[in-house]
């Protein structure tokens, strides 16, 4: 079928073009896309940071309605509305342990954007282009998505807001809830207040953390962080990172989504004995940390990374929806919508910090 898709080419703006989309294969569905969030991961893929083959149709935070089922699909029905999250095989040891972010095929699905047989459902002018990004490629009017990354969505829920649950909000909330397992006794520092960091702030509030410290270089983001639950905010640009953080020693938990080694090392230094630091930011290629290993050993501090907040979308997205329905997850504070045709403006606004989470409306 003919579709409209935003095609990414190296060092060029997205171009909305007519492409051809094959029907769904076994274990897949065809989705008419309603909305799709833009994430920094999409732009990093466009800029060849991950090795995603270009040209490509990106987009991995899609919401839409199923219009066709592939062979053998029985757990979903035509007409159902779904959130499309990240790709996973559903069968490897990590998938069966409800840790699909660590699927043995994650690189193929999510970064190299291909099925396991190397194929793509999208072509242009008769030539295949990369079109299975995060098992969906939802910067398009329609997408073929794997059923392993689908979560049902009730018709009354606003699609533009629900897109953020597929990746960005899921990562921040999952890091706090699943990885750090925050609770009322914790003093948590959250470093970086974009979509992921602000989601972490909201998660820490839901978890009842005694203190929630948000750190960023943008005063407007810190205003939002405080409105969402931060008990203290730190503008690390106004006086430099070291002086700004010196009085914060005593964090039990820390979460970094900046990927900046200097920030990560500073966050680590603020931890109490047995404090824990989780990392979810993309760092520059070859970036290293310099930590005193003896001090790590005697203090019992720990550092670990996380993919998608260690979340299983099939259970965690419904939990986030429940928080949203209770008014505990005000996604409207993060999302700004754009018509699909304004994808390049939306991406530019996100990179410039003018918006937090841009979301494209396909219709």
Summarize the structure in words.
The structure is a single chain. This protein folds into two domains: 2-156 and 330-361, Alpha-Beta Complex (Quinone Oxidoreductase, Chain A, domain 1), CATH 3.90.180; 172-306, NAD(P)-binding Rossmann-like Domain (Rossmann fold). It is built from 13 helices and 18 strands. The protein has 363 residues and is α/β, with parallel strands linked by helices. α7 links the parallel β12 (211-216) and β13. The chain starts with a strand and ends with a strand. The relative contact order is 0.15. Residues 9-360 form the Enoyl reductase (ER) domain.
TL;DR?
Residues 9-360 form the Enoyl reductase (ER) domain. This protein is of the alpha/beta class. The protein has 13 helices and 18 strands.
Strand-helix topology:
Layout: E1 2-8, E2 15-21, E3 28-37, H1 40-46, E4 56-57, E5 62-69, E6 81-84, H2 93-96, H3 106-111, E7 122-124, E8 127-128, E9 142-146, E10 150-152, H4 159-162, H5 168-179, E11 187-191, H6 195-207, E12 211-216, H7 219-228, E13 232-235, H8 236-239, H9 241-245, E14 251-256, H10 261-269, E15 271-279, H11 293-299, E16 302-305, H12 313-325, E17 335-339, H13 343-351, E18 357-361
Parallel strand pairs: 11-12, 11-14, 12-13, 14-15, 15-16, 17-18
Antiparallel strand pairs: 1-2, 1-4, 2-7, 3-5, 3-9, 3-18, 5-6, 6-10, 7-8
Helix pairs in contact: 5-6
């Amino acid at each position: 079928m003919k579709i409209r898709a935003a095609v990414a080419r190296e060092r060029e703006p997205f171009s909305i073009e007519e492409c051809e989309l094959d029907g769904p294969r076994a274990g897949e569905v065809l989705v008419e896309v309603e909305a799709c969030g833009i994430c920094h991961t999409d732009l990093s893929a466009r800029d060849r940071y991950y090795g995603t083959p270009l040209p490509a149709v990106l987009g991995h935070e899609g919401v839409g309605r199923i219009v066709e089922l592939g062979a053998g699909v029985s757990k979903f029905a035509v007409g159902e509305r779904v959130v499309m999250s990240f790709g996973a095989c559903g069968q490897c040891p990590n998938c069966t342990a409800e840790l699909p972010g660590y699927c043995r095929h994650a690189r193929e699905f999510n970064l190299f954007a291909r099925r396991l047989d190397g194929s793509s459902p999208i072509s242009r002018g008769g030539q295949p282009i990369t079109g299975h990004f995060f098992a969906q490629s939802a910067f398009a009017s329609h997408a073929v998505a794997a059923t392993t990354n689908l979560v049902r969505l009730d018709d009354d829920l606003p699609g533009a807001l629900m897109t953020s649950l597929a990746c960005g909000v899921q990562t921040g909330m999952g890091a706090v809830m699943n990885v750090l397992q925050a609770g009322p006794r914790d003093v948590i520092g959250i470093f970086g207040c974009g979509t992921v960091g602000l989601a972490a702030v909201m998660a820490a509030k839901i978890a009842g953390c005694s203190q929630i410290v948000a750190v960023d270089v943008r005063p407007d983001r810190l205003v939002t962080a405080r409105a969402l639950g931060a008990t203290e905010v730190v503008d690390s640009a106004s006086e430099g990172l070291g002086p700004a953080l010196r009085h914060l020693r005593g964090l039990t938990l820390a979460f970094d989504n900046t990927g900046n080694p200097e920030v990560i090392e500073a966050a680590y230094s603020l931890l109490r004995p047995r404090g824990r630091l989780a990392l979810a930011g993309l760092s520059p290629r070859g970036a290293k940390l310099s930590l005193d290993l003896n001090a790590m050993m005697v203090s019992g501090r720990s550092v670990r990374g996380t993919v998608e907040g260690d979340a299983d979308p099939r259970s965690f997205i419904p939990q986030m929806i429940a928080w949203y329905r209770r008014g505990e997850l005000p996604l409207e504070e993060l999302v700004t919508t754009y018509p699909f045709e304004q994808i390049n403006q939306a991406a530019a606004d996100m990179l410039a910090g003018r918006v937090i989470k841009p979301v494209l409306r396909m219709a």
